[in-house]
Amino acid sequence: MRVLGIDPGLTRCGLGMVDGVPGRPPFVLAVDVVRTSAHEETGARLAVLEETMEEWVRRYRPAAVAVERVFAQHNVGTVMGTAQAAGVALLVAARHGIPTALHTPSEVKAAITGSGRAGKDQVGAMVARILRLDEVPKPADAADALALAICHVWRGQSTDRLDAARQAASGVAARQQRAYAAARTGAATSPRTGTRGPRA
């Protein structure tokens, strides 16, 4: 399973392409960090991210895209840029019909290190170890992108099955509600004439 991991950010956006299957060590195909200047207009910066992500998707053809889930932070400007970058990633994936998944930082840390409270140094060290790299990818955005991809390779299929089960359950519940509503309507309506039956 080939996964593009994206650690979204407007100033620095990490990209990591990993190939692998659950239960086996994956290997890295590419890793990079896209940088844009805070002096540039926001639209132009997002365009740079979009063009780079498009190039990666066309070149490597991932089966899935894993993006870090954005949480509100004290710095509104930072979270706004992060959310915008994440939106670009989701847009590019949707344009190519690639399934996407949002993973929280704690989910990624737990998948990579076994602890949802691991620090960035621990995550980076484990990423290098899992991918059999000679050194930890720098800056941390690169390691985080690879961690997202690894997390999805190892957990994505089970997550997809859970999502499918939830959707199936939702569909059953919706059908049951429609059937119940139809039964109530039928009980209040004469089946032959379509008019209301006699009142009690």
From TrEMBL:
One of its GO terms (molecular function) is DNA binding. Its EC number is 3.1.21.10. GO terms for cellular component: cytoplasm; Holliday junction resolvase complex. Mg(2+) 2 binds at E68. The keyword DNA damage applies. SUPFAM superfamilies: Ribonuclease H-like. It is found in: Cytoplasm. It catalyses: Endonucleolytic cleavage at a junction such as a reciprocal single-stranded crossover between two homologous DNA duplexes (Holliday junction). InterPro entries: RNaseH-like_sf, RNaseH_sf, X-over_junc_endoDNase_Mg_BS, X-over_junc_endoDNase_RuvC. It is an enzyme of class 3 (hydrolase). The active site is at D7, E68, D141. Its main location: cytoplasm. Mg(2+) 1 binds at D7, D141. Residues 180-200 are annotated as: Disordered. The RuvA-RuvB-RuvC complex processes Holliday junction (HJ) DNA during genetic recombination and DNA repair. Endonuclease that resolves HJ intermediates. Cleaves cruciform DNA by making single-stranded nicks across the HJ at symmetrical positions within the homologous arms, yielding a 5'-phosphate and a 3'-hydroxyl group; requires a central core of homology in the junction. The consensus cleavage sequence is 5'-(A/T)TT(C/G)-3'. Cleavage occurs on the 3'-side of the TT dinucleotide at the point of strand exchange. Belongs to the RuvC family. PANTHER family: CROSSOVER JUNCTION ENDODEOXYRIBONUCLEASE RUVC (PTHR30194). NCBIfam families: ruvC. Homodimer which binds Holliday junction (HJ) DNA. The HJ becomes 2-fold symmetrical on binding to RuvC with unstacked arms; it has a different conformation from HJ DNA in complex with RuvA. In the full resolvosome a probable DNA-RuvA(4)-RuvB(12)-RuvC(2) complex forms which resolves the HJ. This is Crossover junction endodeoxyribonuclease RuvC. The gene is ruvC.
